[in-house]
Write a structure and sequence with these properties.
Helix 3 runs parallel beside helix 4. By secondary structure, this protein is of the alpha/beta class.
């Protein structure tokens, strides 16, 4: 497994499944933190499609994101991850990393992604890991 530092250094664009626009929600706080640390954030949330968030248009599904992404960061309940894994595998090109945010894990979805060469991080807060390395 690459170190988290290597993952962050090899990531420039992050698609965020479950991004929210409520500033009190972690699905807003965490992506905005990453954006403030020079990552491009592409929000994905069907409820917000047609709006802008993090200075980017919101996509309804991750496999509808046109630009290549290095990482998919997920803020959805674990039971939704099998379907999201299938969406991620339809992306062109597929991302290098998929990060299940703290409290989110699904070994089956992780296995599907790993089998296609995608590194999966489960049940970790990307903001905590990033700030622990770069602050």
């Amino acid at each position: 497994m690459d170190s988290f530092k290597e993952i962050f250094e090899n990531t420039k664009t992050i698609a965020v499944i479950g991004a929210k626009k409520d500033e009190r929600e972690y699905a807003y706080k965490v992506p905005i933190y990453m954006q403030q640390h020079y990552y491009r954030i592409i929000p994905v949330n069907p409820k917000l499609e047609g709006t802008d968030l993090f200075n980017e248009p919101v996509s309804d599904r991750v496999d509808h994101v046109i630009d290549p992404v290095d990482m998919v960061l997920i803020f959805r309940r674990s039971e939704f991850l099998d379907e999201h894994a299938l969406e991620i595998l339809r992306m062109q090109p597929i991302p290098k990393y998929v990060w299940f945010q703290l409290g989110i894990y699904n070994d089956n979805a992780a296995k599907l992604l790993n089998e296609k060469g995608i590194q999966v991080i489960q049940n970790r807060c990307i903001m905590v890991e990033h700030s622990g390395i770069f602050h």
